[in-house]
Each structure stands twice: as structure tokens, then as C-alpha cells.
Amino acid sequence: MKHLRTLLVLALLIPVLSLQAQEDNSSESTDTTLKGQFEDLERVSTNYKSTNGVAYEVIKLSSLNEIKRNIFDTIGTANKTIKDLSGTITANNAEIEDLNNKLQDTTNKLNNVTEEKDSISFFGALISKGAYNLILWSIIFGLLLLLLFFIYRFRNSNFLTQQAKSALAELEEEYETHRRRALEREQKISRQLQDELNKQKKS
User: Fold this and answer.
1) Which residues contact 128 (CB under 8 A, 6 or more apart)?
2) What's the pLDDT score for residue 136?
3) Close Cβ partners of 37 (under 8 Å, ≥ 6 residues apart)
4) With b meaning 16 or more CB within 10 Å and e meaning fewer, what string describes 2-40?
5) Rounded to whole angstroms, how far apart are CA atoms 157 and 17?
6) Where in the chain are the domains?
7) What stretches in the chain show pLDDT beneath 50?
8) In this predicted structure, what is the pLDDT of residue 16?
9) pLDDT tens, 184-200?
10) What local confidence, expressed as pLDDT, does residue 14 receive?
11) Alpha carbon 83 to chain centroid distance?
12) What is the pLDDT of residues 115-127, one digit of tens each?
């Protein structure tokens, strides 16, 4: 009796378990894409041939409505995805533009810093270091030339002054010699005159 009950229970459970396993397998193998749903719809549809020989596929209205809902859901999801992606693209484009502006600003600042680093303010104007060095060395060279010119002029005028002093000394010496000779001559003439006067008085 126990064996009979066990066999009866097993006989009832086996079809239920096999049916459950088939449902699980079918649910696992079901393709949920639109293409898969259309293929399933075509598979479960029945054939109908009209009197004029044209073949038709007969589809349940509930299945048609279900696939229609799925199509609209898919289109809605796709539209939402497109809208979200468009928003993301717009946000990314704005961010890229902002980053490009920041990059341009940073590049300009870097160029300004580089220009200031490579330049020197000279009388309020920024000039390159090369031009500044050229101007500076030109000024130094010009001042050096002026110094050499003034040294030359000083030496030349000093030489002329020494010559003038020497000539003046010679002239003074000649004058003194001439004055002494003239004085001696005058004294000599005075003596001679006195001698003549003395001779005339005696005679």
C-alpha cells in the first residue's frame, strides 16, 4: 500500500516537474529583443489560406497588442536614451568649450609670463633681453668713446698748455735777456755820455 502511494505521488509529480522544467527552459531560451519577439510571434501564429490561395498568418490580438506595447516601450526608451545622450553631448560640448577657453586663457598667461621673463622694462616699454643688451652695450660703448675723446682732448690741451707755458717761459727769458742787454747798453751809453761830458768840462 505504501509503495502504491509512493508510485502514485511520483506519477503525479513527474509531469508537473517536467512541465516546470520546460517552462524554465523556454523562459531561459526566450529572446526578449524585438526581433526575437517577432520570431516568437511568427512561430506561435497559425496559417490561413484564403479561397483565392493567398496565405495569411493568424496572430492573437493579445500577442499583437503585447508586441505593439513592447515596440512603443522600446521606442520610448530609445528616445529617452537619445535625449539623455543629447543632453550629455551638450553638457560635454559646453565643458569642452569651457576647457578650451581655460586652456586659451592659460596659454595667453603663459605667453605673457614668457614674454615678461624674456623682456625687460626699459623706460616703460617692454623690450627683449637681446635688444636691451644691445642698447646697454651701445650706451657703454658710446660713453667709452666719449671718455676716450675727452681724455684725448685733455691730453692735447694739456700738451698745448705745456707748450704754451714753455714758449712763454722762453719768451720771458728772451725778454729778460733783452731787457738786461738794453739796460746794460743804456748804462754803457750813459757812462759814455757822462765821460764825454766830463771830458768837455775839463777841456
Assistant:
1) 118, 119, 120
2) 85
3) 31, 67, 70
4) eeeeeeeeeeeeeeeeeeeeeeeeeeeeeeeeeeebeeb
5) 134
6) 31-117, 127-202
7) 1-4, 7-13, 15-28
8) 42
9) 888 888 888 888 888 88
10) 52
11) 37
12) 777 666 767 777 7
**What is the value of pTM for the model shown?**
0.40
CA dihedral of residues 32, 33, 36, 38 (deg, nearest 10): 110
28 grid coordinates? 531561459
Q: What angle do CA 22, 26, 32 make, to 5 degrees?
A: 165
Residue with cell 614674454: 115
What's the pLDDT score for residue 5?
54
Task: Give the C-alpha separation, 152 to 161, whole Å.
Answer: 14
The pLDDT, as a whole number, for residue 35 is 84
What is the residue-wise DSSP string for the chain?
A: -HHHHHHHHHHHHHHHHHHHHHHHHHHHH---SHHHHHHHHHHH-EEEE-TTS-EEEE--HHHHHHHHHHHHHHHHHHHHHHHHHHHHHHHHHHHHHHHHHHHHHHHHHHHHHHHHHTEEEETTEEEEHHHHHHHHHHHHHHHHHHHHHHHHHHHHHHHHHHHHHHHHHHHHHHHHHHHHHHHHHHHHHHHHHHHHHHHHHH-
Asked if 32 contacts 19 with a C-beta cutoff of 8 angstroms, the reply is: no
